[in-house]
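Pilot study result, target chain (497 residues):
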Amino acid sequence: MVEPSSPSTTAITDLDDDSLVHCASSLSLQDVSNMAMSCKHLRRVAYSDSIWQRFSREQWPEELHSGFPKTSSMRETYLARHTDLQQFKFVDPFLADFYMEAKPYNHLLLNKNDIIFSQGSLVHMLRIDSFLNGRDSLVTLSDHNARITCMRLFPIDETSLFRSKTQRNENVLVTSSYDHSIRLWWKGSCQRCFRGHNGPVSILSDKLLDDGSGKIFASGGVDGTVRLWSLSSSGKRGQQALKATLFGHEKPVVLMSVAGHKTSLLVSISKNSKVRVWDTTASSAVRSSCCVGVTSVPGQPVAMKCHESLVYVASRSSVEAIDLRTMQKVITAAISQSELHSFEIMPSKSLICTGGIDRAMLWDIRRSCGTSKAESIAELEGHTGAVMHVHMDPYKIVTGGPDDPYVHVWETNTGVQTNSLSCSFPDVLGSGTGCSAMAVNGRRIVTASHGEELGGIRYRDFTNATHHVSSSCTEAASKFWDPQPYSDSDSNEYDGP
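Predicted structure:
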């Protein structure tokens, strides 16, 4: 008997380029990106114009505006347009206004299909798709009976509260209040109420912690305590949800952040600028002495954010980076001209942005030249009043304040201004209104303003914008643009209750 010969093996790289391009035309953007990273041969195929032309048609069915800069390949054109949309470099975003009562907006979040904001003790949830289609879209949550102090969104699949697969990639809302309580909201109703603080709850942790036995979150109070809460407790009132009470602060706790290199470590700062680091693991939380580090910062703390083993703290006129392993200061970004009002960091780019009395500043941590002081890259000027709001992501910086009728957009890497967006409603709210709250999510931005008789939410979505800033030939292009009256096809307005 003659043994049959084994069939020859064909590798994917043996296929001609046209066949590979045809196969890749059915892949997703993520799969094509992964393909490009596998080897030089497949990267050449993944960069083919026909593939990126399909992505462009799917993402932007309309023809690209003539003013949009063209590049040497479809891939570069696609990526340039994607970047410019992320940087708000267009003058015709989709715009919609929503009017409310004339109350200050204390907190504002933009969560997928929801705009969430607080006014006093009330939490409002505005469903974007329902609002834009003219349907009843506002849900008011009134269970708190005192001013909301903090709002956080936590991934629902990390809370162990719901098991349905259809609810993955969604978030639950957690709020704290001066009424001494913390509430967890889902589907427009309160699912849990956490009580234990002997006074107002002032702050919540920015992320969930992992104490070794499950996901927990932390709260800080005016009573000077830090409390840890389980998200797997049963019962609507959150019975047995309180896992530990951490003592050590002598003044109210005002800021909290979870360490980046170890999610069981929590950093808290009190009103007297004392910084404490807590190990929240189950074994440590049982003991009263789970504080593993103590230091202090100069001046009143303004904001704080952790990245890897560092915690960045903005206070008075500087930002200090403290190594959580040694509790030693390693970097200072100083601003001697004015006090700080806001602060953000972009750790992947080693950049810090700070908001002062009349301008924002961009700092590069890498340009310390062997010293412990970061170097200033750019002054972000043109503000009217204090810069109270700063958003920062890999593409853009957005800055604004309650005395400024515009929010300003800047390139993250260079600090070059790309746009200025009006956030005021002078015809409705009167002159002198500025940005009292702001939330940015990718290509979307929401700003809030209030006057003496009305308040307003302004929603912008740049996803399908076509008119590039660089194509404007008007004198106003130097200020970028002022919103013109919109037709019914361009904007939506709704008068709230």
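One observation from the pilot: Residues 143-334 form a domain with the Methylamine Dehydrogenase; Chain H fold (CATH 2.130.10.10). A full batch analysis is planned for the follow-on phase.
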